[in-house]
Amino acid sequence: MTDTEGASPRTVARTLTPALHRLAVLIGVIALIAIVGVVLSTRTVDDLTEGLQPASVANQAVLQDLTDLESAVGAWARSGEPGALDDYQEALARLPGHQQVVAQYAADDAPLMALVQAQRAAAERWLEEYAQPRVQAPGGAETFQLRRYRLGQRLFEQVRAAHQETAELFGNRVREASADATWRLRATIGSVALLTLLGWVVVGRSRARLLAEVSRPLVALEAVVHQMAKDPTVRAQPEGPREVRSVALALNELADAQSRARAVEHKVTEELRVLDTARDDFVSNVSHELRTPLTTIHGYLEMVAEEFEDTMSPRHERILEASRRNVARLKTLIDDLLTLSKAENRATTLESVDLVPLVRDAVTDVAITAAGRGIVVEQDLGDQPVIVLADRPMLGRAFLNLLSNAVKFSLEQGRVSVSLGVEEADGRRSAVVTVLDRGIGIPTAELERLGSRFFRASNAVTNEIAGTGLGLRIVQTIVDKHGGDVRIESEEGRGTRVVVRLPVQSAG
User: Fold this and answer.
1) What homologous superfamily does CATH list for 348-503?
2) What is the separation of C-alpha 313 from the centre of its chain, rounded to a whole number of angstroms?
């Protein structure tokens, strides 16, 4: 019954069920045929690959073992060297295992079993009547006996003849199994293809009806959804199957709810902004407040060190040194917190800056620290200016942090390389600053966590290398504000490469 007759609209289930039932029956039949065909083919293939072929290979190995035995007997007869007896014993030890594999497979195949037994009997006759007595007798050319040699040749020819018959039957079995598997697979594929064609016809006949009753209302609903993304006042028209109408009504209700939620979202966003500002102010204020007492404590510690110089016991000197070290660590942490807070919240004032002297100044600042540990800082900055739009102090701090880290995590008498260049990709020119050290590196599992606040690599903690875990975060924040990016490649024990890319200022 249709809408024009005044009845309620049909559901999608009532529209789709007949077609789905027919399709399900076809799919079930196809699946059943495919499963049966695959199972039968798989059994044949399994018997071929897991039973017949290994047994055939083992049968070839039996002949190889016997051939090795015959060669070893001949070598003993010609030379009498003990090594020939070793080869004989090795081949003799391998032979029973290969014979057992062949016999196990042939147990259910009477014709094959008869040939396998004949082959085994011929091999045993050759071993008992010729091979064993010959290796037990003295070796060497002087012990050669023509009658015994001819006996061995005749018995071994019988072994070869028996093996040839067995190998031919194995070959026939392999070809029969391969043909059987191929036939079953082709029959399965043909049946599935035929039923698939029939299913295609059924689907094609059902498609027109489904398009008219289900697809067109859904397409119209999709168009309304896209319009809502541009114009929140657009609403859907309830038409089509019952479920589609329900979705249209729900979509209209959702659009109304979204309009109300936007107002709430705007209010929450404003409150979050205020809270974020308060948090940053709190960090900044606390850091400033802690600076003064730390400076005072540092001053008193220096006074104590000067006043009691050469009079303190070793224990008191260690206590004093630990206090001074931890005060310095706290002061560094506070400085990094203040720098990070400024980098995140400061309104960046950009000016044209030449990166060459900026990077060179950073190299100069770390040169003394590097020289104290025997570390050489190499620089390749080129002879052409590289101009970028930047906040000079903040960007200088970023490069100083990178170089300080490279020196800090380098080994004694190591080397740090700094280079500056310009690359062009996709019509955009970028300044590329690369800092490379050959230090302790970073564990691969920890690379993804780099840049997190207060994160320090496990090997840096183990080696007791001082740090706050904020240096790289500061670098990333500053570079992000300049429209650039930071990429880090590192291998533990091999060193770290940090590449900073910044957009080069255009000619305009």
Assistant:
1) Histidine kinase-like ATPase, C-terminal domain (3.30.565.10)
2) 57
Helix axes 12-46, 146-210, angle to 10 degrees: 170
Q: Which of 46-55, 142-151, 263-272, 314-323 has the lowest mean pLDDT?
A: 46-55
Q: Which residues contact 84 (CB under 8 A, 6 or more apart)?
A: 72, 73, 75, 76, 139
Token pair belonging to 195: 């039923």
Q: Which fold has domain 16-208?
A: A middle domain of Talin 1 (1.20.1420)
Better pLDDT: 406 or 44: 406
Give the model confidence (pLDDT) of 156-208 as tens digits: 888 888 888 888 887 887 787 777 778 877 888 888 788 788 777 777 777 76
Which residues, other chains included, contact 466 with Cβ-Cβ below 8 Å and sequence gap of 6+?
Answer: 329, 332, 408
What are 267-295's pLDDT values in tens digits? 887 877 777 666 666 666 666 666 667 67
Which amino acid type is present at position 238?
Answer: P
Other residues' Cβ atoms within 10 Å of the Cβ of residue 73: 26
Indicate the domain borders of the chain: 16-208, 266-345, 348-503
CATH code of domain 266-345:
1.10.287.130
CA–CA gap between residue 168 and residue 58 (Å, rounded): 14
Q: Supply the pTM of this predicted model.
A: 0.43
